[in-house]
Design the sequence.
């Protein structure tokens, strides 16, 4: 669709339909709601901006976490509504479910969440952190403080946890560490008591959580209950790591259950800069003080901003033109400067580490500058991965 003005004095803008495909119900509906908020905030800001010669018309679907619904709704967006751009998906399972449809229609999927890497499609813009931007910073920190860690991994049973488990093993085993157990639960499963009993028996120095949705919530709450009887589970006894925990989940689960957790992500609400304070202020003004954006909501907002700027520069919403224009954009976002790498369609992002303190994911370290995305981990010698403690000083 080419951008046009009517020329009749009304200055009417071109309307461009955009698909929105986030699960705001189901196992991970809490996160889906915040991602939907992020993209809707961006679209409202874009549509109110007189400098754009078009408006974005969101067509919103809620798959409810069902892979079949992702497939059905993606097909509907592409072929009934004729959209060329879809912002959506939280899990890698959902992304991989619709990727053949996206590629077959030569559309563009704007994928906002953190993910496990090892994928690069010219039809996907990967705005969330790649492994070298969120997994490796956490493991570097771990190796600095536990040179030969004994890790108990509990995750959700799909590609996200599989790949994180593999990456972790490849890094820590050459250093003398070990993943002593990997317990993977079906998505949505909440029966975790036996796993916590096994953790108590094995007494690992480190617990790594890659659970998503209700499985994660149940695990954190069950841990808190069990800790009342088993001192080993207290936060000062075992190092607890998470690659999925985010602010809206902290608010929902409760601060006490999550005290001391160390989390790695490309953005936290506690990032200290003017752009972030302005983003949080606009978000709260639009969705209420009780709203709580996650890192994935922030990147959903970025997806809208990148899409709009790229359409404007391209003069069209055609995928090839938008993609070329996208590689020339840079946004000074809430977590620092962000741009999209032309080699792999992933974002340059600034890694951050935070610790849960009294209900706040408080940043205590961040990289000095945005890190080039390496989704295939081709530039890192994993067995030599190590940086000094000084790099992680608060």
Sequence:
């Amino acid at each position: 669709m080419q951008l046009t003005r009517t020329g009749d004095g009304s200055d009417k803008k071109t309307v461009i339909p955009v698909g929105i495909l986030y699960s705001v119900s189901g196992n991970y509906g809490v996160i889906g709601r915040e991602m939907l908020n992020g993209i809707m905030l961006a679209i409202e800001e874009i549509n109110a901006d007189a400098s754009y010669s078009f408006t974005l018309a969101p067509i919103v679907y809620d798959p409810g976490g069902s892979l079949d619904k992702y497939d059905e709704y993606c097909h509907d967006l592409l072929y009934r509504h004729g959209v060329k751009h879809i912002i959506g998906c939280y899990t890698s399972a959902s992304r991989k479910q619709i990727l053949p449809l996206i590629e077959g229609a030569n559309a563009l999927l704007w994928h906002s969440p953190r993910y496990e890497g090892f994928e690069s499609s010219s039809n996907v813009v990967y705005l969330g952190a790649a492994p070298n931007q969120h997994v490796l910073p956490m493991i570097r920190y771990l190796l600095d403080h536990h040179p030969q860690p004994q890790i108990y991994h509990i995750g959700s049973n799909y590609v996200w946890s599989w790949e994180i488990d593999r990456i972790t093993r490849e890094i820590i085993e050459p250093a003398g560490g070990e993943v002593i157990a990997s317990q993977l639960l079906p998505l949505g499963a909440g029966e975790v008591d036996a796993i916590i009993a096994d953790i108590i028996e094995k007494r690992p120095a480190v617990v790594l959580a890659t659970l998503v949705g209700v499985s994660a919530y149940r695990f954190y709450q069950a841990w808190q209950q069990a800790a009342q009887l088993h001192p080993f589970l207290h936060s000062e006894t075992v190092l607890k790591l998470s690659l999925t925990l985010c602010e809206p989940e902290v608010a929902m689960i409760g601060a006490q259950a999550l005290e001391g957790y160390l989390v790695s992500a490309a953005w936290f609400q506690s990032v200290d800069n003017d752009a972030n304070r302005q983003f949080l202020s606009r978000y709260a003004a639009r969705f209420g003080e009780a709203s709580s954006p996650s890192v994935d909501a922030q990147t959903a907002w970025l997806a809208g901003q990148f899409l709009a700027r790229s359409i404007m520069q391209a003069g069209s919403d055609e995928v090839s033109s938008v993609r070329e224009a996208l590689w020339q954009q840079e946004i000074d976002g809430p977590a620092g400067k962000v741009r999209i790498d032309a080699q792999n369609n992933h974002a340059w992002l600034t890694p951050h580490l935070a610790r849960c303190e009294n209900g706040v994911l408080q940043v205590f370290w961040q990289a000095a500058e945005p890190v080039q995305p390496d989704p295939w981990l081709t530039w890192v010698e994993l067995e030599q991965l190590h940086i000094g403690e000084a790099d992680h000083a608060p």
Q: What stands out?
A: Residues 14-128+273-347 form a domain with the Rossmann fold fold (CATH 3.40.50.2300). Residues 4 and 14 are 6 Å apart (CA to CA). Confidence is low (pLDDT under 50) at residues 6-10, 387-394. The radius of gyration is 21 Å.
